[in-house]
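Please, structure for the following, as tokens.
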Amino acid sequence: MKYIIVLGDGMADYPLPALGNRTPLQCAKKPAIDALAANAEVGLCRTVPQGFKPGSDVANLSVLGYDPHDCYTGRSPLEAVSIGIALKDTDVTLRCNLVTLSDEENYEDRTMLDYSAGEISTAEARELIAALKKEFDGSDFTLYAGVSYRHCLVAANGKTGHDFTPPHDISGKPVRAHLPKGPCAETYLAMMKRSAEVLKGHPINRARVAAGKNPANSVWFWGEGTKPQLENFEKKFGVKGGVISAVDLVKGIGILAGMRIIEVAGATGNYDTNFAGKAQAALDALKYGLDLVYIHMEAPDECGHQGDAAHKIYSVEQISETVVRRICRELDAAGEPYRMLICPDHPTPIAIRTHTADPIPYLLYDSTAQIGCGAETYDEEAAKNTGIFLDAGTKLMQKLLAK
């Protein structure tokens, strides 16, 4: 038996008036997924435990079968592991976004215009991070470059207990009420202000402005954490697993779990990602040694944060027709029995452009059994109507791997 998890990050949503009071999942043309629904278990699952913020860190851990109560130490250390940072037990890590703020004279009066600085390229971002390293690096702090707008700051012998706001939670909002709070808040705010001074006239940003793109004119710290540990995935579940993702967060979880990290050329973390390449990489991994693949696609989440319903629908359609259809077709043709779990980690509703902790719709298909529960499609309403509800995300993995 082979196992495939197709994770459309942030794929679930709320009904939108502009879509005829339907969700992107309901609007999307996804015959490959809907065909599975008729012979699958479809229901709702709570992937974000009570008391946790609805982040992709907590939610992806849950779907992968890890209880955040037992292992969660923050978002940024998971990304740090993927970047290759060797953390000490006394280190505290922070996620460092390159963002676009408005240009009022006082930093506190500015507005969060773009949490991703126009999806800045990794090459451009690395030049900007190199300039900031000259300002920040020393005995107390080290700044590390990641992918696109996502980077990492490590505080040696750092303190925790800060109140940080994810920048995607305040798109279009003034930043004053969301600046760092806590024991080292003044230091972090001073670094953010200094970054704005350094980045304002940088050649990369001058070129971006000239090209009509958003400049990366500040850093924004959030997601603090300490060195994490996860039980080995194969030891825990008895199957060899791999992760396919374009984002450091999910790769970091996979690395900590001892799973194989499978790189795919052209994987971007947005709707222009290489969907076909991810499908083929999953098939290859299953053919040559792995029992389970976790195919993470960030595109729906990014579209949700950007308020981009059209491309969120497009992303769902690509997941259905380019990923799910291809994998099912190839495994069916090979006579390979398999189970497939399709779900988001959390909703990222277009209307509010950030994550929620609402239960997510899931679909569990077994090629060797007729599970049908009355659903004819896969979407939020269909999942609700079956009456099936799982109160913990970890139960998805238990169901997927049940003997």
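Residues 2-72+230-401 form a domain with the Alkaline Phosphatase, subunit A fold (CATH 3.40.720.10). The mean pLDDT is 97.
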